[in-house]
């Protein structure tokens, strides 16, 4: 091996690993991702709750318009490089010059693209505010949020690069820094009297901090790739071509996730937009669970697929689907039981209209948790074109349903449109993986989860008939009961071998962890 190659940190941990080892790595990575994601999400949730309560539903609705545009256009700005660098990084890490070129391309191009989109948002803001959303007050909001796009794209892509190390803590640190900076700055700016503009500036600054932290860890994880003695070599058109297809899929996927909010903003009041934003954000709690597992699942799939080990890939696919479902079920049962109390407790009575959309969106997220592994399987095994086609088909269904349902049914119609298109997309990707690889994400092991779910539903039904002194006590009791009963039932039914191995590895890791 050359001096350059020896200087480059290459992750060879997958060499010689068996299926049990894959499950342990998945569990360890997911535990780190979940712990950090919960902390980051808690900070983000505190920020959003403070904004909702302090700004009011109307101003929070205007904030939601700008935030939604950033999330959708951010997929265009990254040009798919957050996935492209993971897909090709498994090969390029052993070629320092090419790996460095891939990293440079993956950071510079999204930054330039994000800047160009920000300028376009500034120019088009009057049309968007007046003619699309019919809310003149949204003009300044859209323009200010455009400033976040260059930082958002770099933060997102640099975070993806750190995942190549198969150590999720660095991605977690970036997310925590981003969330903490945004929360702290919002508190300062709000109490200085800046209100809604302060909330937008704080959000943008958070992405800047996250980008800087991610860039720091990229340098730390791959020192040779950023060393001056290593010349940057253009990786060729394959990275850009692959990334563009992922960008299209990202636009469609993010469009499907957020287009409902745009339709609510276009057809309903700013206050209704704020209420729906609250429901959408709470339902994204499921996204934390997905991100925790699939953040480590993606690079593992890319690496195992490159090695051609079909059996390990199939088992990892099923285990990831099972664990994501098990993690999602107690959360869904909590929302199903106390959605109204939960919304009122966090956001206030002005947002109680978010309860029904929250249940609908959460049901769709639960199904996504079971099938999300199929999305990664397609993207990380070179079937991204299929993923793009299915993504746009799903987006089209979402748009057509939203046009038909939102004017009449309002927030509930938007939630139904999103849930229906999501069910179509997830089902279609599962069938595509079955066609390409001959495997399903489910097997008989998941029957234990079904039994545990029924037992938990019974316990929550009994609790529903009880009186509680405060709504907060009801929510806390239901949450504890849901998690406890579900976990105890799984334990009584007996852990699968991969579950026991993963728990053993996790206990060893927790006992030896050093900060």
Summarize the structure.
This protein has 515 residues and is mainly α. It has helices at 3-7, 19-78, 81-92, 96-132, 138-146, 149-162, 169-191, 195-221, 223-226, 237-267, 270-283, 285-307, 310-347, 355-379, 384-409, 411-437, 447-464, 471-493, 497-512. It has one domain (17-442).
Structure description:
The chain is mainly α. It has one domain. It has 19 helices and no strands. The protein has helices at 3-7, 19-78, 81-92, 96-132, 138-146, 149-162, 169-191, 195-221, 223-226, 237-267, 270-283, 285-307, 310-347, 355-379, 384-409, 411-437, 447-464, 471-493, 497-512. Mean pLDDT is 81; it is low at 1-17.
Low-confidence stretches: 1-17
Strand-residue fraction? under 5%
Alpha-carbon distance between the termini?
A: 33 Å
Class by SSE composition: mainly alpha
Question: Order of SSEs, N→C?
Answer: HHHHHHHHHHHHHHHHHHH
Number of domains: 1
Counting DSSP H or I runs of 4 or more residues, the number of helices is: 19
Main sheet specs: none
How many beta strands in the DSSP annotation?
A: 0
Assembly category: single chain
- Overall mean pLDDT stands at 81
Q: Write down the Rg.
A: 22 Å
What is the topological layout?
Blueprint: H1 3-7, H2 19-78, H3 81-92, H4 96-132, H5 138-146, H6 149-162, H7 169-191, H8 195-221, H9 223-226, H10 237-267, H11 270-283, H12 285-307, H13 310-347, H14 355-379, H15 384-409, H16 411-437, H17 447-464, H18 471-493, H19 497-512
